[in-house]
Write a structure and sequence with these properties.
The complex is a heterodimer.
Chain A (H helix, E strand, L loop, with lengths): L17 H23 L20 H4 L4 E3 L7 E3 L5 E9 L4 H11 L4 E5 L1 H6 L1 H9 L3 E4 L12 H19 L1 E3 L1 E2 L14 H10 L3 E3 L3 E2 L8 H8 L7 E6 L6 H16 L3 E2 L2 H5 L5 E3 L2 H54 L13 E7 L6 H9 L5 E8 L5 H8 L4 E6 L4 H11 L4 E5 L4 E2 L3 H6 L7 E10 L5 H24 L9 E5 H7 L9 H11 L3 E12 L5 H21 L8 H37 L3 H25 L10 H25 L20 H7 L1
Parallel strand pairs in A: 3-4, 3-10, 3-11, 4-5, 7-8, 9-10, 13-14, 13-16, 14-15, 18-20
Antiparallel strand pairs in A: 1-2, 1-8, 6-12, 16-19, 17-20, 18-19
Helix pairs in contact in A: 1-11, 3-9, 5-6, 6-11, 8-9, 11-16, 11-20, 11-21, 16-21, 18-19, 19-20, 19-22, 20-21, 20-22
Chain B lengths: L81 H7 L3 H4 L36 H28 L22 H7 L51 H12 L9
The chains are: A alpha/beta, B mainly alpha.
Keywords (chain B): Membrane, Transmembrane, Transmembrane helix
InterPro entries (chain A): Glyco_hydro/deAcase_b/a-brl, NODB_dom, Nucleotide-diphossugar_trans
Protein name (chain A): Bi-functional transferase/deacetylase
């Protein structure tokens, strides 16, 4: 369908194409944040392999028989240290956890005990406040790598990265670096084997004191408070490093165990101290200044930003998910109800309408199609008069029509003024009360006009939408639009008909009561989508707008991507204009208020909000496939595709269309849908920035009956 | 060919009739239900009153120059250019006798259709001809771009060139596996009464004696009692009460009473 064109504007001076750069930048930023979030949630790069025990011949005996603290900084002489008697070093691994660590800290504070927290970089960057609190309350913090992989599987560079990023997180969280390290999946010193010993050696070479443990409370298995305490208690009065966890699930037993373990041990003569205190050394925490501090704070800051922003993204995804599924559900249910209602044997809109109808055909340079269009109209089985409004064509469209010589066809010429003006011109020339509007390249069936005007038997009906069909549906792009028309537009129309909120009557096939048109002031040029505008205005005036499924009209969909882009740009921009123009209806009373409070938000949600948020689906889809759980993501996508396929098949059945074109549905979801929301985004940007589109006309001085008007010519002789 | 309709759509002849007539027609009775609408078009039907936000156009015009549509001229355009001139004289079409439609429709006469003034592009929805909104948003766009770039720089910069090395830590000098003597633990127990408790930030410190009122001997090995204190912590943690007990017991180098 070609609109009647207005003259093009002069081009603007070149500026930085922000409308493309900014969305791209936003997309990249969002993806980066998603990836950072995935990294600190251990979804990306997480390595969950754990070694089986191995032989121990390479490990020095004095290490295996030694204490839980290993000082391997001197590679030639690794030293093993024990905890003195009457001292317990409680250690908590894998933290901090927002739920349990505060409780653990509270317990420690209550009993004036100190402990060592071996924290992961992921959690430290996510909950920096807890690290601050640990340090402030006198506890010690040690490293436990960034992402908790089994270091015996990792390369040296990966180990370096795990250590440096862990330090980075500590620096950002509390402004300190630590000299203590505990390898993930480690245990007692006598469990050291040929796989784990090289790790300790390497880490020692980096200057770390490695702390294993003496007793393992096994609290992560949740064996019960008594068992935890029993496991944790050292023999006699010996000193010990106790392994506990403050992360990784329900740690309520750990907290409850602490509440008994701490006072009991203290009464037995033990004190709970930091590791370096027990060893008689200065604190393992060193304050960080300068560049290291800034880098740490930058990293933790970035993680916090990423976490909070992606939370919004997840909310957005939930919204669009709800909208999509609600739309599916409504479409299916309401289409079923609508079809049943209008196909009942005794269904009638009202008394049959037999009065003649005026058919308006605004045309601009439609020399190829206009003859077909007019001929199809003349084959109509309903009495009509045809008014072709030639909007200043330069290719002789008007002459072609006149040459057809049909008695009921009139030609009105005007200077090029745009489609709304042409339609208004046509309405003024129309003789009858019922007015059908179509496009210059639309082809009607013989029954179309009759089917289209039958609903006017119901006095409340002010306008009727017909069933526009894509004629050129065999090309790929045509097939996609065919699917879109059948499912998206026509299934939607049934739903909107029942709900009484039809937003658009297609310009290719629509009928109006002249009275309704007059009352709302005719077609307006305020928006690029004058069909949507007039339909909304008619709603607000209190009329019913219905869908006549048998009023088929065949239209030619754009065949090239450029034309499609252009068409959809106008449609989406115009729809947003119309919604905005009629936004005042929210405050109105009566039918206008109903439309404003119920119809407008629904239409805005389905036609503007959902498509704008649709890119989130693709972002999360890609993220899930690449970084997340691949199989589950693909399965979810396939399920949605299947639901869409079912909807589409139902729509096709209702319209009695062949199902073969549905084969291009999967590809449509991958290519066509993305094109549509890029177009919508661009039109949204134009709307927000207030730019003028090239289809919008400059101020006009008034439309003239063009010279060359037949009557004038006749008068001239 | 002009649209001189001599025959109706069904082939019936049309009575010649000037279009602008005022009297209601009876011929429309055949249309049945529409009959009740056969008043002047301004009379509402049994529909609810409209609540339009824009002014209703006067729908009915008894205008001699009926079929001349001038929707755009309805909004007074100041320029008296050639186009407007043409409207002051009767339109050519009005000169021709316009054939009567076959059966009268509800509107027994064709009013001049006067739609609201067609808005020009300057008045179109969203269009901001002054460009102010665009400029403001462009400025915001730069801001956002800067923020995003800053985020990227912060993130990438922080991850680059990190050192995996631990800060230095001086453990007390021990030849091999060592159990620190009990007295050392006494001197190291955090005691608020301990006189110069060095709370300073001392990452590495050679051994120095910690004066301890409770301990009978001071041990050469004892390190600085920067015990339990992190560099950023400035408070001494334990209470006087609890710390004495273990210290008292430890001073007696016997097994001591075990509590519960």
């Amino acid at each position: 369908m070609r609109t009647t064109k207005a003259k093009p504007r002069p081009t603007r001076r070149k500026r930085l194409p922000m409308r493309y750069l900014l969305p791209l930048l936003l997309l990249v930023a969002l993806v980066a944040m998603l990836m950072l979030r995935g990294y600190v949630h251990s979804e990306i790069q997480a390595d969950h392999r754990v070694r089986d025990p191995a032989p121990t011949d390479k490990v020095p005996d004095k290490i295996i028989d030694g204490g839980p603290v290993i000082d391997a900084r001197n590679a030639a002489k690794p030293v093993s240290l024990r905890i003195p008697d009457h001292k317990i070093v409680i250690t908590f691994d894998d933290g901090p956890d927002p739920t349990w660590t505060p409780k653990v800290l509270d317990e420690l504070k209550k009993y004036h005990a100190h402990a060592v927290f071996f924290v992961t970089g992921t959690n430290a960057s996510r909950y920096p406040d807890l690290i601050k609190r640990m340090v402030a309350e006198g506890h010690e913090v040690g490293l436990h790598t960034f992402n908790h992989p089994d270091l015996s599987y990792q390369s040296k560079s990966r180990i370096d990265r795990e250590l440096s990023e862990n330090q980075l997180a500590l620096a950002g969280a509390a402004g300190v670096h630590s000299s203590l390290f505990r390898p993930p999946y480690s245990s007692f010193a006598d469990a050291m084997d040929n796989d784990t010993w090289p790790v300790v050696q390497y880490v020692g070479s980096k200057g770390y004191i490695v702390a294993l443990d003496s007793t393992d409370s096994e609290d992560w298995q949740r064996p019960g408070v008594k068992k935890i305490i029993h496991n944790a208690t050292p023999e006699d009065d010996k000193g010990a490093i106790v392994l506990m966890h403050d992360f990784g699930g329900d740690r309520s037993q750990t907290v409850a165990a602490l509440d008994k373990f701490l006072p009991d041990m203290q009464e037995s003569g033990y004190s709970f101290v930091n590791l370096t205190t027990a060893l008689g050394a200065p604190s393992a925490l060193t304050p960080v200044t300068g560049m290291d501090l800034w880098k740490g704070e930058a990293f933790v800051g970035a993680v916090q930003v990423a976490e909070h922003t992606t939370d919004f993204l997840v909310v957005g995804l939930a919204i669009v998910g709800v909208l999509v599924f609600a739309r599916f559900g409504l479409m299916l249910i309401l289409s079923f109800v609508h079809a049943r209602k209008v196909r009942k044997k005794d269904f009638q809109w009202g008394p049959p309408v037999t009065e003649p109808v005026s058919v308006l055909v605004p045309a601009y340079n439609e020399r190829e199609c206009i003859a077909n269009t007019v001929r199809s109209l003349m084959a109509s089985d309903h009495p009509i008069e045809v008014i072709v409004i030639d909007d200043g064509s330069s290719d002789g469209t008007a002459d072609i029509v006149e040459a057809l010589g049909h008695p009921n066809v009139r030609v009105v010429r005007q200077e090029n003024a745009g489609k709304p003006a042409a339609l208004n011109n046509g309405i003024a020339h129309a003789r009858y009360e019922l007015v059908v509007m179509m496009d210059g390249d639309t082809v009607f069936e013989p029954s179309t006009v009759r089917e289209l005007v039958q609903p006017f038997g119901n006095l409340r009906v002010g306008a009727v939408a017909g069933n526009a069909k894509v004629g050129n549906r065999d090309s790929l792009i045509g097939a996609w639009q065919h699917i879109e028309y059948v499912m998206g537009f026509n299934l939607d129309r049934r739903m909107y008909d029942l709900l009484g909120i039809m937003p658009t009557i297609p310009g290719a096939v629509g009928a109006f009561r002249r009275q309704a048109l007059e009352r709302v002031g005719g077609m307006s040029e305020d928006t690029l989508a004058e069909d949507t505008d007039i339909t909304m205005a008619i709603h607000r005036d209190g009329w019913k707008v219905v869908y006549s499924e048998n009023a088929r009209a065949w239209t030619e969909a754009p065949e090239s991507v450029q034309q499609l882009w252009s068409q959809r740009y106008r449609w989406s921009y115009g729809t947003m204009q119309a919604i905005w123009k009629h936004r005042g209806a929210i405050k109105d009373r009566g039918p206008s208020g109903r439309f404003g409070r119920f119809g407008l938000p629904l239409v805005a949600a389905f036609m503007v909000l959902a498509p704008l948020l649709a890119p989130l689906i693709d972002i999360f889809l890609l993220y899930g496939i690449v970084f997340g759980k691949t199989e589950q993501t693909i399965v979810a996508w396939l399920v949605v595709l299947m639901i869409q396929g079912i909807c589409a098949a139902y729509a096709f059945r209702l319209d009695k269309e062949k199902l073969t074109h549905l084969l291009s549905l999967p590809l449509q979801q991958v290519l066509y849908r993305q094109l549509m929301y890029v177009v919508l985004l661009q039109s949204w940007i134009t709307a927000v920035t207030g730019g003028r589109l090239r289809w919008q006309k400059l101020r006009r001085t008034g439309v003239v009956e063009a010279p060359g008007n037949p009557a004038e010519r006749k008068a001239a002789g | 060919m002009d649209s001189r309709i001599s025959n109706g759509p069904g082939g019936q002849p049309r009575p010649g009739h000037p279009v602008d007539q005022q009297q209601p027609r009876d011929a429309t009775m055949q249309l049945g239900v529409f009959a009740e609408e056969l008043t002047t078009p301004t009379r509402r039907l049994t529909k609810p009153e409209p609540q339009l936000t824009k002014p209703e156009p006067q729908a009915v015009r008894s205008d001699p120059r009926l079929t001349k549509p001038d929707p755009r001229v309805a909004g007074a355009v100041p320029q008296a250019s050639v186009p407007t001139q043409q409207f002051t004289k009767p339109a050519p079409q009005a000169v021709r006798p316009d054939p009567e439609p076959l059966s009268r429709s509800m509107t027994e006469k064709i009013p001049t259709f006067k739609p609201l003034r067609a808005a020009s592009a300057e008045q179109a929805v969203f269009v901001d001809a002054s460009g102010k909104r665009g400029k403001k948003l462009r400025w915001l766009g730069w801001l956002f771009g800067l923020a995003a770039t800053g985020f990227a720089v912060a993130l990438v910069g922080s991850l680059l060139g990190g050192s995996a090395r631990a800060p230095g830590l001086n453990l007390p000098d021990k030849a091999d596996a060592v159990t620190a003597p009990p007295q050392a633990t006494a001197s190291q127990a955090p005691q608020p009464k301990a006189s110069p408790s060095k709370k300073a930030v001392v990452p590495a410190h050679s051994a120095s004696k910690a004066p301890s009122p409770k301990a009978s001997k001071s041990v050469p090995h004892s390190a600085t009692p920067v015990t339990g204190h992190s560099p950023v912590n400035t408070k001494v943690s334990p209470r006087p009460g609890t710390s004495h007990k273990p210290a008292a017991r430890a001073a007696i180098p016997s097994a001591g009473k075990t509590g519960a």
